[in-house]
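TODO from last week: model I/LWEQ domain-containing protein.
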Amino acid sequence: MVNYAKAMKAAVEQILRASATMTTHSNQNMLTTGVSNIVNSFKSILTILRNRFLLREDWAHISAEAKRSLENELSTAIKVVNEAVEIAHREEAMNDAVTKRLRAALKPLMTVASKVDSQLQAAQERTSSMSREWALQVLSLRSALSKGTIKIMFHTKEHPSANSNKYADLGENVTQQLAKISADIKKILAGVDEPEKTVIGIMDSLAGVCQNTQKGSGIEDQALLEAFNIVLKGKSSCGGSVTSSAK
C-alpha cells in the first residue's frame, strides 16, 4: 500500500508538471481538475480500505466504484495530455512553416537593403546638385524602411506570433517596392527630366506600403512604426528639403 501511495503521488506530480507546459488554457484547467479528482478518488480508496479492516458489509460494492472512478480519472488525464501533445506538434509545425517563410522573405530583402546602402553611399559622394538631393531623400527613406522591416522580421522569426505571416507579407512587399525603385534612382542620378515626378511616384509607393501595413496588421513594433513615420513625413516634406539642400 505504501508503494501504491508513492506511485500515485509520482503520477499526480507528473500530471501537474505537464499542466504547467500546456499551450491552451482549457487543457490546463482540465488537467488540474483531473488531478483534484484523482486525489479525491485515491482518498476514497484509502477510506474504503479502512472500512475493509472494520469489516463493513458494503465494502465490495464501494471499492469497485472507487476503483472505476480512479481509472476513469487517470484515463481522462492521459487523454488530455495526448491532445495537448498533438496541439503542441501542430503549433510547432505551423511555427516552422512561418519561420521558413520569414527566412525566405528575409534573404532577398537583406540583399536589396545592402544595395540601397551602396546606392546611398555612392550618392553621398557625388557633388551637390538637384539630382543628388532628390536621390538622397528617397534613398534615406528606403534605408529606414528596409532596416525597420528587417528588424521586426528577425524578431518575429525568433518569436512567432499571430502577425508572423503578415510580417512575411510586409517583407515581400517591401522587397518588391525597393527593387523597383532602384532603376528609378539610377534615372534620377543620370539627370532625368522632371525628377520630382519620379520621386513623387516613389514616395507614393513607399507611403502606400506603410499605410496599408498600419491599417491591416495592428503592428505595434516601435522601430517599424518609426520607420513608417519617417517615410510618411518624408513624403510630405521631400520637395522643400531638396530645394533648400541644393542651394
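Done. The chain has two domains: 2-90, 96-246.
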